[in-house]
Amino acid sequence: MKIYLNGVETTVDHTKLEAVLIQLGYQEVTIATAINGDFVPLSLRKNTQINEGDKLEVLAPMQGG
Amino acid sequence: MLEVYGEKFTNRLLLGSAQYPSPAILSESIKQSQSQIVTVSLRRESGGDLAGQAFWQIIQDLKLKVLPNTAGCYTVKEAVTTAHMAREVFNTDWIKLEVIGEEDTLQPNVFELVEAAKVLVEDGFKVFPYTTDDLIVADKLLQTGCEVLMPWGAPIGSGRGLNNPYALKTMRSHFPDTPLIVDAGIGVPSHAAQAMEMGFDAVLLNTAVAGAGDPVAMAKAFNLAIEAGLLAYEADPIDARDMAEPSTPMMGKAFLS
Catalytic: which of B96, B126, B140, B220? Predict the structure, then answer.
């Protein structure tokens, strides 16, 4: 299935957000997620469905002013 | 003592964490500034390099209060979603709310800002709105439940200092009991001192330190300037005059002509 990870077309094998994140290398890291512009909290990642063409944003701490 | 949302701080410099030449200089600059509040942000993370994790460790090691921002957001929706993501990542309900209106000046879109503040306050956030020096907007922000205001000194990163001292002075007078933090546009320590001499509660800056030739020394200079400005304000400065007035007493002066 193809989705857009941080704006880049990416192929994933899973349909649940938590499994997708593990596949993409986000294990035991401090991140926040949004699908199609809506925040998906950590507590909901396990059961949140990812669909073909979804836009997944994965954000992490970064320098800021 | 700076008091915002029930928390007290002895230092009145809020420092940004962006644009430093290296992580070591970032860390040392923050230490030398003696800042107790550091601003941070959120950006896309690659599962390959996980660059954000190392930065987050540096900030955590400093054991300071973290103030996440919504930099780069142009709409209520973007800002609110970013704030929710920041709350989860940084484990804080503090949010520096930026809703930008246009690219040349990065001026806040105050209409979207007020709306976003209203949503976030209702969602339990402690909102630090980056705003202009407009009194009506300030009042609207307070009505939403914001307990602090952050008017701009000048456009972000411009280093121009206080573009409109009259408006800022008016704002200080109009909201005597609201914590007011001058945010953005500061270039040199004298700009920060000027804000403090006007009675502002604190100053938030980033580029002026991070972009200096020696960020560590500049961080120290800003801390000293802000402390000096605060002391001066508390010492009740004299009013400026148009004409000279002799400081040396004339009484007893000899006639020598």
Answer: B96
Does residue A37 sit at the B interface (CB-CB below 8 Å)?
Answer: yes
Question: What span, in angstroms and rounded, lies between the C-alpha atoms of B211 and A28?
Answer: 34
Q: Name the residue among B40, B53, B77 with its Cβ closest to that of A29.
A: B53
| pLDDT tens, position by position, A31-45 | 999 999 999 999 999
Q: How confident is the model over B5-47, as pLDDT tens digits?
A: 999 999 999 999 999 999 999 999 999 999 999 999 999 998 8
Q: Cβ contacts (< 8 Å) between B54 and chain A: which residues?
A: none
Residues 6+ apart with CB under 8 A from B29: B15, B20, B209, B210, B215, B216, B218, B219
**How confident is the prediction along chain A (65 residues), in pLDDT tens digits per residue?**
999 999 999 999 999 999 999 999 998 899 999 999 999 999 999 999 999 999 999 999 999 99
Whether A32 contacts chain B with CB within 8 A: yes
